[in-house]
Amino acid sequence: MSRSTGSPTLLHVNVAVGSVTAVGLAVASASGVPAVPRVWGAWAVVAGPVQLIVAIRRRKTGGQWPVVLSGGISVLACGSFIVSARADDPALSIAIGYAIPGEIFFPLSALRLGRTAKGG
Q: Distance (Å, rounded) from C-alpha 9 to C-alpha 54?
């Protein structure tokens, strides 16, 4: 992958952060509900900027708006996860509001990138 379309280093960072987060979520889920949004918030504050940087580097290829939106939402959502973990009765339902846009933005991005790769 060339530097003009994205950095393999950032992609590796994203994979590493996601893997550490998966392990962290497994440990957190055994620790109780408040630990889960803390881990999710920590992931969002790291993953969001990585998504934004990748999208900015790839902006010339077009179709990066779903990644920009997803990265921006991640950065903004991290605070709400951490605040929700401090609530008297924390709930995991806050993750729904974060997961739904991802379920929309990532497939849109994949479709767009697939079309770009095919030259269409």
A: 10
Could you tell me if 109 and 69 are in contact, meaning their C-beta atoms sit under 8 angstroms apart?
no
The radius of gyration computed from the CA coordinates of the chain, to the nearest angstrom, equals 16
pLDDT digits (tens, 9 = 90+) for 34-55: 888 888 888 888 888 888 888 8
Q: How far apart are CA 103 and CA 105, in angstroms?
A: 6
Q: Indicate whether 4 pLDDT > 60.
A: no
Could you write out the three-class secondary structure of the chain? CCCCCCCHHHHHHHHHHHHHHHHHHHHHHHHCCCHHHHHHHHHHHHHHHHHHHHHHHCHHHCCCHHHHHHHHHHHHHHHHHHHHHCCCCCCCCHHHHHHHHHHHHHHHHHHHHHHHHCCC
| Angstrom distance (rounded) from CA 86 to CA 4 | 42
pTM assigned to the model: 0.67
| Nearest of 111, 33, 48 to residue 79 by alpha carbon | 48
